[in-house]
Amino acid sequence: MPSTKRKKWGWIILAMLLVLVAGGAVGYRIAVGILKGKVVEALGPGSEIQDIQVGWSGVAVRGLRIKGPQGWPAQDALRAERVTIVPSLLDLLSGEIRVRSVTIEKPYLSALRAKDGKLRVVPTLLERPLAKGGGAAPPAAAPPAHIATITLRDGVVEFFDATVAQPPLKVRLEQLQASLRNVVVPALTGKSDFDLTGVLKGVRQDGRIKIGGWAEAATRDSTVKTELRGVDLVALQPYLSKAAEVRVQEGTLDLDIQSDVRKNRLRAPGRITIAGLELAPSQGMMGTFMGVPRGAVLAFLKDKGNQIAMDFIIEGDINNPQFSLNEAFSTRMAASMAKTLGVSIQGVAEGVGMLGRKGAEAMGGTAKGIGNAIGGLFGVQKK
Length: 383
Known about the structure:
Blueprint: H1 3-43, E1 47-48, E2 51-55, E3 58-67, E4 76-87, E5 97-113, E6 119-121, H2 123-126, E7 145-161, E8 169-185, E9 192-200, E10 207-216, E11 221-232, H3 233-240, E12 248-262, E13 265-279, E14 288-289, E15 292-293, H4 294-303, E16 307-317, H5 325-341, H6 345-351, H7 356-364, H8 372-375
Parallel strand pairs: 5-7
Antiparallel strand pairs: 1-3, 2-3, 3-4, 4-5, 5-6, 7-8, 8-9, 9-10, 10-11, 11-12, 12-13, 13-16, 14-15
Helix pairs in contact: 5-7, 6-7
């Protein structure tokens, strides 16, 4: 072949390659655009993402955001700086959806416990709209996806609790590092192991939190060990004492608790230690803290190096309609406080009439619940 013809065909082949590359790039951009639209559609109203990057090693989503709906206590319900999904390439031909890892960098989540005790998380995504007939819209059929590991890095959670205060009390967790293993979605069957560490923000000082164990969302069974260290009592006061009681000016709380849930039965033995407690002056003769007369608390603190340690066991049926989280936890702590300080439990129950008949009964027997702030950490939620 003459050299001129060879050069001509060379230019033709080069031009075809350029067309194919350009066409591939355009096709890639179109495909990514379609994928981005599908992701936003799946996330629901008020959601947005900045960018999606698709590579041989996986998919990366940047700038994920789901805005809070009207009336939500925070501006955003969920956001994340970057989400990286790495599929298991060896299982692509098996017909199963398997993901090697999901890494979520700098996530933020806001959660609301409504006045009725219902926990709401990302409502525009997880709370399905009603169908025209008034019933719940049937979920779209989806094949199960097996996720080996979900990792959270440098996360923030803001928990708003309307059951103890109005406007809702805000508890903020920062510097969250978490790992969740062996997850099957959407069925959430099987045991999923997890561990979490972070900082619980306070008014006077910040505390540390550490949680580990396993849970099966489908059955609500779980075994969870929780540790709190140096948590600010001022921030958690609504969970420990009633609004009419003496206010806490300063103090810290340590907590160790092992929670087990089997067939909707909860058993959670634990130990709580209060240190450096300072109480505001009493406004009357019957000033109390955690159901115990203020004077008895201060006298005990003076004798015990300004520290109170209490053991307790909380157990009951989490499906029982009478399962009152807030009241039961306050009651159990009052009973433990009274026992530790040597105060008559009957006298405490009579002096704290706000606990009511159910509260007095619980003080003499088995408490049937746990406070919302701590109960949420165990995966114990009322339906």
